[in-house]
Amino acid sequence: MTSRLPPAATLGPFFALLLACVFFATQSDRFLTAENLSLVLQQVMVVGVLAIGQTLVILSAGIDLSCGMVMALGGIVMAKLAAELGLPAPLAALCGIGVTALFGMVNGLLVTRVRLPPFIVTLGTMNIAFAVTQLYSGSQTVTGVPADLAWLGGTFAIGDTSMGHGVVLMLLLYLGMGFWLSRTAGGRHIYAVGNNLEAARLAGISTDRVLLGVYALAGVFYGIAALLSVARTGVGDPNAGQTENLDAITAVVLGGTSLFGGRGLIVGSLIGALIVGLLRNGLTLMGTPSIYQILITGILVILAVAVDRLSRLGAGE
């Protein structure tokens, strides 16, 4: 029976999520309403999709500090092409995703070809993406986004509850990536590279190709997150992504994915994003100042990394 249970790295965040729900339910009658929980899902869908790309990078023993800024650039490109140049919404979205994928490819090339540490590479591309975003947009918010580009920000009714189109897309992406990581050779190679790069190379895995693919695919997910961000706000915001990069890393870490690579499940990142979203929502309903939300989130991240480190030491790693 125990062999059929999910690993402890996933059960821990799941129980933390349940405990948070129970606690906030006792503090506010509005917390467990269907409408409020639907709102939480809509609030976390951007960070949730960013966290998919971040999970791939962290599983490969890397980290991507540029995801938020790259997302902002992708959103500005989409919004300007659609609103100012009149490109059809699907084409504008593909152009934005292409830009974010290109940044991911650049990150991957610098990591695999130049052998630079992912932390330094993505710190540099984070600043480059921010500067390009400000220059391209003139530091101005892009308005007049066509309805077709903002369709994913809309909702549909399930009974008396509104569900976001973007939320459905996020859940489908998690299902697809969960299957790919667990059931295909490509997904297992990411785990192998993150667990031990040299051992994976000696086993015949093209480690450079895997890492390049990871960063490029992560860029694609940043582009999808950009589309969701534009759809949710209805504008192209050059100042978007200021906190989303750390929020995405927080979601991945809280979801049980090891910062040391090679261990974790994609569904854990969704649970981690929900923990952060429910935490902020619950504290807001309680009237708690936002500064305490940031404080508690920071404490949770440190605890999650400490638990992961101690578990590795206990396993003799």
Question: Any chance you could write out the topology, listing elements then pairs?
Answer:
Layout: H1 8-27, H2 34-59, H3 67-83, H4 89-112, H5 118-137, E1 155-158, E2 161-164, H6 165-183, H7 185-195, H8 197-202, H9 207-233, H10 244-254, H11 266-285, H12 290-314
Structural class of the secondary elements?
Answer: mainly alpha
Report the C-alpha radius of gyration, rounded.
Answer: 19 Å
* CATH architecture assignment: Orthogonal Bundle
Helix content: over 70%
- The structural domain count equals 1
- CATH topology assignment: ABC transporter involved in vitamin B12 uptake, BtuC
Mean pLDDT metric: 91
Structure keywords:
317 residues; mainly alpha; two-stranded antiparallel ribbon; 12 helices
Describe this structure in words.
The longest helix is centred in the C-terminal third of the chain and has 27 residues, at 207-233. It is built from twelve helices and two strands; from the N terminus they run H-H-H-H-H-E-E-H-H-H-H-H-H-H. The two termini are 27 Å apart. The protein has one domain: ABC transporter involved in vitamin B12 uptake, BtuC. Helix 2 (34-59) runs parallel beside helix 6, helix 2 (34-59) packs antiparallel against helix 9 and helix 4 packs antiparallel against helix 5. With 317 residues, it is mostly helical.
